[in-house]
Amino acid sequence: MKFLAWALTGVLVAGCSPAAHATDAPVPVLSWTDCADGFECATAEVPLDHRDPSGEKIELGVTRKRAADPSRRIGSLFVNPGGPGSGVDGTVRYFATDGPAELRDRFDIIGFDPRGVGRSQPLACQPQDEYAKAWQEASARPRKDSYESAVRNGRAFADACQRESAKLLPFIGTEYVARDMDLLRQAVGDEKLNYLGISYGSYIGTVYASLFPQNIRVLALDGAYNPHTYANYPYEYDLGQYRAVEAALGRFFDWCVATSCEFGDGDPRAAFVKLQNELDADPVVDDGTFVGNGATLTYNVVSELDGGKRAWPELATRLAEAQNRTGPLLAVPDVGFLSVNVAVECADRVFPRGQLKPRLTIASAVAPLTGPALAYAVPNYDHAHATACTQWPVVSRSRYAGPFTAAGAPPILVVGNTGDPDTPYQDSVALVSTLRSGHLLTHRGEGHTGFFQSEKCVAEKITAYLAEGALPPQGAFCED
């Protein structure tokens, strides 16, 4: 991901060492109630500001499914699916109902919505119609006014977050999420934390390990971040993601040619560029309402790449539908999910404003098929936040800047996927080198993270580690 030898001038502000403001916040009292389907729900009160543990509180939504075999119960397993997104639905319910039996039998499966998400005082920014209007200005190819439009839309987005969620914005960074999780660990009665973090959930786990290394039993981080680069050199980190996405799309096109897929008539790359340009020149409008253009098409294709090879046939079908100006690949992204995604990253990271224009130019150049649509659109996903974060209206009180060594922690399992378009494999390698006790498992395949791409190998090895503490051999890998 570090393909250019540029001088990086990351700035460390509002970052704290583990001892900088350790708090003695009271442990929440959880009153569990039935929330249907065999799950229990509770609400936890934690400090809004962990620097003021006796001050104002925020409520977090928590969900639990008790261990199916109490006689073999180890404790609780906290699961975070990334996003940032809901930890009480979706993924946690999969692990509690359809996930590996050994985990369901031996752990209470627990999920919680991080602050700002779902049942934990959800953050809001722009309304969907305003967000859609901004996407109308975006395009799949750079235009003369692309940069100015991106800065203007980034400012409008940041201002909307301040307008709608001013009270919460300084306190949604990952350090405070990790501190919340340690309070929840104590609230459920566990002496040590058992944790599986996926994608952004891996960064929560990394920060937790750096703050509370002595409180860990097992920690599995799947689809990991290079934490130092992510937090302190965000332009460099994002460039790696631009490159990974572009490479994954190229491998999809290669597969499409090899299998004579239903999109592109033997030249899917040319067909994709043509489709982007056509949609930009003539956006899809339904009864006067904007539906989509080349930029929204690109965003949705990038999202679909997370599904890996098993999703490629459906992606080809949807691209063929888009040629007929219909289907889900045209839709404007959901601002609800992306508002939290942007806001958390702006809380966690520092983007030097003076570097914005050249960095977006570089990102657009190294990822010509996917980069411009994301870099110059309204702030959207992961590597497309700089235009908002350089104009962020608050200083984060909840940002963690390092160190990330987790000195004193037991062995930590890190899983990296060689074809991951979202969390590039090099980041997992970097995290293992950063952690004092990091241990790498490599998945050789496509798609985002390893667990859900390799249920017969990666999932089994993660399960063995979580249940028994059994690490795979050094250098172990799983094939797609």
Structure explained in plain terms:
The chain has 480 residues and is of the alpha/beta class. The protein folds into two domains: 33-122 and 170-230 and 400-479, Alpha/Beta hydrolase fold, catalytic domain (Rossmann fold); 128-165 and 239-389, no CATH class. Helices cover 40% and strands 15% of the residues. It has helices at 91-97, 101-106, 128-135, 146-165, 174-187, 200-211, 227-232, 234-259, 268-281, 294-304, 312-323, 335-348, 356-366, 371-375, 386-389, 425-434, 458-468; strands at residues 33-34, 40-47, 57-65, 75-80, 107-112, 193-198, 216-222, 284-286, 289-292, 412-419, 438-446, 477-479. The protein has a ten-stranded mixed sheet with strand order 1-2-3-5-4-6-7-10-11-12, with helices on both faces. A two-stranded antiparallel sheet has the order 8-9. The two termini are 22 Å apart.
List the helices and strands and how they pair.
Blueprint: E1 33-34, E2 40-47, E3 57-65, E4 75-80, H1 91-97, H2 101-106, E5 107-112, H3 128-135, H4 146-165, H5 174-187, E6 193-198, H6 200-211, E7 216-222, H7 227-232, H8 234-259, H9 268-281, E8 284-286, E9 289-292, H10 294-304, H11 312-323, H12 335-348, H13 356-366, H14 371-375, H15 386-389, E10 412-419, H16 425-434, E11 438-446, H17 458-468, E12 477-479
Parallel strand pairs: 4-5, 4-6, 6-7, 7-10, 10-11, 11-12
Antiparallel strand pairs: 1-2, 2-3, 3-5, 8-9
